[in-house]
Amino acid sequence: MDITTETISSLKRKYAAGEASPSDVLDALEARIESTEPKVLGYLRRNLEKAREQASVSDTSLPLGGIPIAVKDNINEDGEICTCASTYLENYLSPYNATVIDRLQAAGAFTYGRTNMDEFAMGSSTEHSAFQKTNNPWDVSRIPGGSSGGSAAVVGARSAIAALGSDTGGSIRQPAALCGCVGMKPSYGMVSRYGLVAFASSLDQIGTFTRNVEDSALILQAIAGYDPMENTSKQQEVPDLCAHIGKDVKGLRIAVPKEYFGAGIDAEVAQKVKAAIDWYQNEGAEIVEISLPHTEHAIAVYYIIATAEASSNLARFDGVRYGHRSSEAKDAISTYHLSREEGFGAEVKRRIILGTYVLSSGYYDAYYNRAQKVRALMKQDFEKAFEKCDLVLTPTSPTAAFKAGEKLDDPLQMYLADVYTIAANAAGICGISLPCGFNSENLPVGLQLMGPAYGEPTMYQAAYAYEQAHGWSQQVPSIT
Ligand code: GLN
């Protein structure tokens, strides 16, 4: 078995035919990890013994039976350390499972490996992890993207079959694009956030990293659906996500927003994405030009709303209940101050300060309220667009993977990496990034398809058709 080319569906076939067992897969994966991890550093922790036990008892007749899945380190898993890549939670042991973990297990999967990330999911390069820097498997001098950079890097390196991540402003799609894998953010409310450590609750969604499009639909089908434990979880029925996989794209109306090919986009990225647009047109899709006029405010809106929600969500880390407590503290106030001062990294502090500022009296109306109004307009832009089209097609990231350190001292440049991904979170719609070629430096480029809320089946249809015709997803990095 060549573990670098297997997918969930190919493993399911092998299990059914008795050609391999989940334990064989785990062994092959561990061998791959041993050769790639010293250079990639995508995992924070792995518990091989526990995974071996789970592999040996897995029921391969279930939808994800015997499939190992890596998990971003901000999703609670009973009995596992869950650090959010923060010193603050270095020793935090989860007392319960996130709903997605329960659902993966009910579908027969087992988890293997906790992946690196930007601290509390704040960042676009995974360089804000308090513990280690993860490298891009296609060029280890470059970043894997973020904030789910560990999940993207291990799936891209073919040292994981699939992984979970979280996407608040692009944290699944952008690193997937940069690491050459498929990354999917579901519609808001489709997947329970119960047990995901909150960053910006009105934007956060858990989603998938996979080696191909079909695997993404298989995992999403297992984890999606109403959860009474989570108050933004929607009661809406989850459609059959594979219903349109395998159908052609004839007659699909695919929109290209003119604002998404403006200043700041790398020429090679634009060229690859335009080639994909031409492919869809040649296959009989109708390409419509649309305008998403409020996109120009996306970054400003996001960095007001996300920081505001983060400052409120992170107030729970007060040195009292769990996580880091300063040994220097003398009273309640110094417990708060010193524990937060010592436990949080610079980017997290920057977000808390920004968020507190935009929520403070006197500035609330000028910043927070105004951002909410513009967010509503961004949402309306998409509602109008989806009257004229089935899907919106854009680049995922304005550039391919950048060099480690390149944007670390310039937060604004780092924030601009999210320019094409943020709108889907603001509008609550679904988005997928899939490989659409390699640039002249052999770095992957990603294509983004966005659909209306609960429009995942059509999004998967279009993504699958493109993937089958191109085979970019089958490329395996050599990692040197
Ligand atoms: N890069 C964005 C940020 O830093 C998005 C992060 C995310 O989606 N979690 O906030």
List keywords for this structure.
single chain; 480 residues; alpha/beta; eleven-stranded mixed beta sheet; 38% helix; globular; binds glutamine
Note down, in words, how this protein is organized.
- The structure is a single chain.
- β10 and β11 form a beta hairpin.
- This protein is α/β, with parallel strands linked by helices and 480 residues long.
- The two termini are 22 Å apart.
- The chain has an eleven-stranded mixed sheet, with helices on both faces.
- The structure holds glutamine.
- The site of glutamine has 14 residues, from β4.
Write the layout of secondary structure elements.
Blueprint (H helix, E strand, L loop, with lengths): L7 H9 L5 H19 L2 E3 L2 H9 L11 E5 L26 H8 L3 E6 L33 H8 L5 E6 L5 H7 L2 E4 L19 E6 L2 H11 L29 E5 L9 H16 L3 E5 L7 H16 L18 H12 L2 H14 L4 H25 L2 E5 L15 H5 L6 H6 L2 E9 L5 E8 L4 H15 L10
Helix pairs in contact: 2-3, 5-6, 9-11, 9-12
The structure holds glutamine.
The site of glutamine has 14 residues, from β4.
Gap between N and C termini, in Å? Answer: 22 Å
The main sheet comes to: 11 strands, mixed
Given the structure, what is the number of helices? Answer: 15
Low-confidence stretches: none
Secondary-structure class: alpha/beta
Roughly how many Å is the radius of gyration?
21 Å
